[in-house]
Design goal:
- The chain is α/β, with parallel strands linked by helices and about 450 residues long.
- Helices cover about 35% and strands about 20% of the residues.
- The protein contains 14 helices and 19 strands.
- Strands 8-9-10-11-12-13-14-15 form an 8-stranded parallel β-sheet. A 7-stranded mixed β-sheet has the order 3-2-7-16-17-18-19, with helices on one face.
- Helix 4 packs parallel to helix 5 and helix 11 packs across helix 12.
- It is globular, with a radius of gyration of 21 Å.
- Bound molecules: zinc ion (ZN).
- Zinc ion binds next to loops.
C-alpha cells in the first residue's frame, strides 16, 4: 500500500536548516519528505491531503541538545535564585535526591510538552539522578517520550564521586561504577534504535568532572564505542570546574577529557565555555559537538560560549535549553532568540544572523546527536516540522517573516509535525490533557520541596 501524500502548500516562508528558500511547499509520504518544491512548482503526482500554509513560516523541527527534565520541579526556587553553579548545585542536590518515579514521569511529560509547543520535535535529556527507588528513571522517560510522540536521545547519566571522596554531590545520589555500567548496557540493549527514523536513541553521560571518577568516564567511553552510541557530559561550564580539574587531576578540562578517551566525534559537551585557543583547535579537529545553553549560562553567570571560534575550528554547535532549575523555561524558540543576542555581544551583528542561529537549533542539533535523517527540509529526511503563524500582536508590522520569528520573539508553534504526524494543532498538543498534567506537576513540585 502506498503511503498517503500530504502537500504542505505555499508556505509564507520556509527555512531548510541552512537558509531561507523560495518554495511552493513540501510533499511528504508517510514519515518522509519526498519533494521540496521550487517556487511555482507543483507536486509530481496528486496529493490526497493538502495543508494550506500561506499563513505559516515553516522550519525543520527544532532539536534540543541539553536538558534535565526532572528540574521542571524546581523552577524559580527561592534559595538558589541568586546563586552561581557550585552553591546552586549543593543547595539543590538534597532536594533532587528525593525524586520519585511518579514525579519524574510528570516532570518529563511537562518538559516534553513545553518543548513540543515551542516547535521542538527531537530532544535530548541528561538524567543522572538514580537515588534508591529511581533505578528505572530512563525507562520512565522512554515512556514519556513515546506518549508525546516525539524523538529523543535519552542519556543515561551518572554520578559516582560523592562528597566523601572529594566530589560535589551527596553520597545518597551517587552509584557504584558497576551498577552504572550494568544499567547503561541494559538500556542500550533495550531501547537504542540505530535505524533511520528512530524515535529513541540512548547515550551515555557521566555528569561532570566534579561528580564522577575518571574510571567511569573511561569505561563509559569504551562501552559507547562498543555499542555505537554517543557520549555526553558537562564540560568547561564554569571557572570553579576548571579549578577543580587542575586541583584534583592536575589537568585543564580538555586535557582531562582527552586523558579519559573522550576527545572524539562521538562526544557532545554541554556549555563548553572556558576553552583557550589551543583547546578550541583540538576540539574542532576531533569533531566534538557543543550544546550552547545561553539562558542557563546567563542565569548562573557562567560565561559566554565561543561559538564562532569553535565552528571555525571544525566543531559542531547546537542549542540546549538546559535543566529548568537554571533557565527556567523549556522553550527552543526562546533559547534561539537568546543565543542570537548573547552571541552578538561577543561577535557583533554581521556574523550572528537569525539563519545561523536557526541552523544551530535544527541542522546543528541533528549533527550533535549523530543523526543524518532530521534537522533539514530536504528530500529523504524525516517529516519533522515546526510551523509558526505571525498573527500575534508581537509580529504586527514585521516584514521579514523568518527573521520576525526570532526578533519579535515567537514562542509557540501553531502546528508541529513529528515523523509525518501532527502533534500540535492550533497551538494545542493533540491527545494530552495539559491542565490535568499541570495540576499533577504543580503538586509534585510542591511535594518535592516539602518532603
Ligand atoms: Zn546541564
Amino acid at each position: 500500500m502506498m503511503a498517503e501524500r500530504l502537500w504542505i502548500k505555499q508556505p509564507l516562508a520556509c527555512f531548510d536548516g541552512t537558509q531561507h528558500i523560495e518554495s511552493n511547499g513540501i510533499v511528504i509520504e508517510g514519515n518522509t519528505i519526498v519533494e521540496v518544491l521550487a517556487a511555482q512548482q507543483l507536486p509530481s503526482r496528486p496529493c490526497e491531503k493538502v495543508f494550506d500554509a500561506r499563513q505559516h513560516v515553516v522550519l525543520p523541527g527544532l532539536i534540543n541538545t541539553h536538558h534535565h527534565f526532572y528540574q521542571t520541579l524546581t523552577r524559580a526556587w527561592g534559595p538558589v535564585i541568586n546563586q552561581p553553579l557550585f552553591p546552586w548545585l549543593q543547595t539543590l542536590y538534597p532536594v533532587w535526591a528525593k525524586l520519585t518515579p511518579q514525579a519524574l514521569r510528570v516532570a518529563s511529560e511537562v518538559a516534553l510538552a513545553e518543548l513540543l509547543l515551542s516547535g521542538c520535535t527531537t530532544t535530548s535529556d541528561h538524567h543522572y539522578l538514580f537515588p534508591v527507588g529511581m533505578e528505572e528513571a530512563i525507562d520512565i522517560q522512554v515512556a514519556a517520550v513515546n506518549h508525546l510522540g516525539m524523538r529523543a536521545t535519552l542519556s543515561r547519566g551518572s554520578m559516582s564521586l560523592g562528597e566523601k571522596s572529594g566530589g560535589l554531590p551527596p553520597e545518597e545520589t551517587v552509584q557504584a561504577a558497576e551498577t552504572i555500567l550494568h544499567d547503561s548496557q541494559r538500556l542500550i540493549d533495550r531501547y537504542h534504535d540505530s535505524r533511520e527514523g528512530a524515535m529513541i536513541n540512548i547515550a551515555l553521560a557521566p555528569c561532570s568532572p566534579f561528580s564522577v571518577t575518571p574510571e567511569i568516564m573511561r569505561e563509559s567511553a569504551m562501552l559507547a564505542k562498543e555499542k555505537g552510541v554517543r557520549l555526553h557530559t558537562h564540560l568547561a561550564e564554569t571557572l570553579d570546574e576548571e579549578a577543580f580539574c587542575l586541583q584534583r587531576f592536575g589537568l585543564r578540562t580538555v586535557d582531562y577529557l582527552e586523558s579519559v578517551g573522550w576527545l572524539s566525534q562521538r562526544t557532545w559537551l554541554a556549555h563548553g565555555i572556558h576553552f583557550n585557543d589551543e583547546e578550541i583547535s583540538r576540539l574542532g579537529k576531533e569533531g566534538v559537538a557543543i550544546s550552547h545553553c545561553p539562558v542557563s549560562n546567563m542565569r548562573l553567570a557562567s560565561g559566554i560560549c565561543r561559538t564562532l571560534d569553535l565552528l571555525d575550528a571544525g566543531a559542531t554547535i547546537s542549542l540546549g535549553v538546559d535543566g529548568s532549575a537554571s533557565n527556567d523555561a523549556s522553550n527552543m524558540m526562546y533559547e534561539a532568540r537568546q543565543a542570537l543576542y548573547l552571541q552578538r555581544l561577543r561577535y557583533g551583528t554581521q556574523t550572528i544572523t537569525p539563519e545561523l542561529v536557526l541552523g544551530w537549533a535544527t541542522r546543528g542539533g541533528a549533527k550533535t546527536l549523530g543523526r543524518t535523517d532530521i534537522g533539514e527540509i530536504k528530500v529523504g529526511k524525516q517529516a519533522d516540522f515546526a510551523l509558526f503563524t505571525l498573527e500575534d500582536i508581537r509580529f504586527s508590522g514585521s516584514h521579514d517573516p523568518l527573521a520576525a520569528l526570532l526578533l519579535c520573539g515567537a514562542d509557540r508553534a501553531d502546528r508541529v509535525m513529528v515523523a509525518g504526524k501532527w502533534r500540535v494543532i492550533e497551538g494545542e498538543i493533540v491527545n494530552i490533557d495539559l491542565p490535568a498534567l499541570l495540576n499533577h506537576h504543580r503538586a509534585a513540585a510542591k511535594n518535592l520541596i516539602n518532603l
